[in-house]
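Box 3.1 — From sequence to structure: Type II toxin-antitoxin system death-on-curing family toxin
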Amino acid sequence: MIVLSTQKVMQLHRFLMQETGGLDGLRDEGLFDSAVQGPFTTFGGQELYPSLEEKAAKLGVTLTKNHAFLDGNKRIGTYALLIFLDVNGVVMEYSDADLIALGLGMADGTLDYDGVLDWIQKHKVEAFV
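Predicted structure (token representation):
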């Protein structure tokens, strides 16, 4: 499994701000670290988010909801979720409208962790073996 480091997520955020506009930079480093590391949390030796999809959902929701960045929290939450899945071989299929609904839903709470996990499952392309 490929893990997105805090440095990589910072690079992704910087890229998003350059491409789409907005302020680059962190508002709260602790909230940022918590969001990036949260998907890999364990308790009693057990992963709390064992699948790639669960990790991606946790990453997307916490990056969006923690508001660790000065700007672009919805964008980085959505982008990091998709990049994490992509680099780990999970193929997704979605429209621009689907992405907008995902980002806004995570931000306004209409899509919580379970809702985002469901969104991922619905948009995942199953591989043929």
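Summary of the box: The domain at 6-123 is CATH 1.20.120.1870 (Four Helix Bundle (Hemerythrin (Met), subunit A)).
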